[in-house]
Write a structure and sequence with these properties.
The chain has four helices and seven strands; from the N terminus they run βααββββββαα. By secondary structure, the protein is of the alpha+beta class. Strands 1-7-6-5-4-3-2 form a seven-stranded antiparallel β-sheet. It is globular and about 40 Å long. The model has no long low-confidence stretch (mean pLDDT 95).
């Protein structure tokens, strides 16, 4: 982790890693937490494997959906780590994503209370990191992590 280039989110999710993993890899679960409420997400492609696509659409009211994310998975280590980047789109073409170019690494580890969940979002230079932070990284990634935790914890309680 490089504090000049990276932003992080850390949380203990009170659910087993397998439940958190499914929330990341099952499209019907993923779209329930991936964007901050009240916005709505639609998964177009979720192929959790190296080189697989991560394509989502976004709607403010659930009726009209526009482009949101077109990314590529780089690493997928089952139950442990997911890495995706916006540097490549879902067709493996170099991308110029708005608002920032980033690579996100999500790690899951056992914790006595469930899952130690960590996100590191890497940027190419301090300006890109600063821009992402100014655009609301903490609020956005914090909100979706909270939503992910709520869904996983509900599922684990059943």
């Amino acid at each position: 982790m490089n504090p000049d280039l990276d932003l992080t989110v850390d949380r203990v999710i009170r659910a087993p890693r397998a439940v958190v993993w499914r929330a990341w890899t099952d499209p019907s679960r993923f779209e329930k937490w991936w964007v901050p409420a009240p916005a709505v997400c639609r998964v177009e492609r979720l192929e959790p494997r190296p080189g697989g696509a991560l394509v989502t659409r976004l709607s403010g009211d659930g009726t009209e959906f526009g482009p949101h994310l077109d990314a590529c998975f780089v690493v997928v280590d089952e139950l442990e780590r997911i890495v995706f980047t916006t540097a490549l789109d879902s067709s493996w073409r170099p991308a110029q994503p708005a608002p920032v170019l980033m690579t996100a690494e999500i790690t899951l580890a056992d914790h006595q209370d469930g899952t130690d969940y960590r996100v590191i979002v890497r940027h190419g230079d301090p300006a890109a990191r600063a821009r992402h932070e100014e655009l609301g990284f903490a609020d956005g990634w914090g909100a979706v992590t909270k939503q992910l935790a709520a869904i996983a914890e509900r599922e684990a309680a059943r």
